[in-house]
Amino acid sequence: MAQPEANYDETKVPKFTVPDPLLTFSGEAITDSDQWEEKRKLEIYQFFEKQIYGKVPAMLDEYSFEVIEEDNNALGGKAQRKQIAVGLKKNNRSLNFNILLYLPKGNENAPVFLGYNFHGNHTVTDDPKVIITKAWNANDIALNIQNNKATEASRGSRKNRWAIDKILDNGFGLATVYYGEIDPDKNDFSDGLHSLFYREGQTRPKTNEWGSIAAWAFGLSRAMDYLENDTNISKVIVFGHSRLGKAALWAGASDPRFDGVISNNSGCGGAALSKRKYGETIGHINNSFPHWFSESFKKYSNKEEILPVDQHQLLALIAPRPLYVASAAEDEWADPKGEFLSAQYATPVYALYGKKGISKSDSPVVDRPIQETLAYHIRSGKHDVTDYDWDQYISWAQNFVK
């Protein structure tokens, strides 16, 4: 279906009512955190689960972890490296993925950033010991990935997005997983996590069941199953960029074990308000990436006005845990203003817990972060993850993820 041309003109943003996170679907006002937990949080979560990201259809039958490689003197002696194979089993079918974990040497109790990468664990570093993924990979000539297969030529090709030295030097660890090992990012539900759960004759998820974003969020929680039992790890902050920022937000909303959440340029279906219809819209995203969300979400394509929730309520589900929303000034497709407003509209829920966020008097100023429990920045530049972003995430985590 042809989609309307994307709008980048603020004067053409439609008038809309922001759904009140502190008013239940039946019209009852929420005035304290106990009421939020008892009456509002679950109904919002269930709407997102059934109508947007989709429900996980069942529990796994079993899962396993095996440290398949480790070195206590990695990266020139500054890090401990572990590579962990995670096995998931359901209906006599199995799926495996690898976690790459770096911990700062000498820090026996380090907080860790956990995030997916786009092309393989070996792309985030020049480290020759990091295993090259065998999973399907999106072709990218600039990154030396051809025939949907990663090779040695792509090692270190995305290290610019992962400030590993900076992370380690500040006492943090990094855990990363190639998202394609959980669910290949193509409109084909036959070869990823979903297929483990199919009943006889089933070839795709049911209408209200999970799309790829929910599957990636599920994978982050399975990585967390390992990380929470590693005695050298104190806290886990789930991080994601772009579509993987959407997955990080849903993982954070779904799994309270994550101690903090970072959304980097997550845009439509992530941190940005859908009802603004600015940049990428629900219609655009469902048309271009029909596998990301539940099938039930498609009824809101080009009909954002009938959606009874918006993305600020997703952010609110993470309260009172620390949350950082970040935008880029030239990333209009992801609607930076919509991301800022979403954080602002989620702030009243944080206030129920005595936590600070984005006040009504705040405004987004490029390269001037607002760092509270609910934090926000818009930096100069394009859709990317930069050293500037990592500088902010590290300083924020040192103050708020304790």
UniProtKB/TrEMBL annotation:
InterPro entries: AB_hydrolase_fold, GCE-like_dom. GO terms for molecular function: carboxylic ester hydrolase activity. It comes from Zobellia galactanivorans (strain DSM 12802 / CCUG 47099 / CIP 106680 / NCIMB 13871 / Dsij). SUPFAM superfamilies: alpha/beta-Hydrolases. It holds the Pfam family GCE_fung. The keyword Coiled coil does not apply. Residues 206-354 form the 4-O-methyl-glucuronoyl methylesterase-like domain. Keywords: Hydrolase, Serine esterase, Signal. This is 4-O-methyl-glucuronoyl methylesterase-like domain-containing protein.
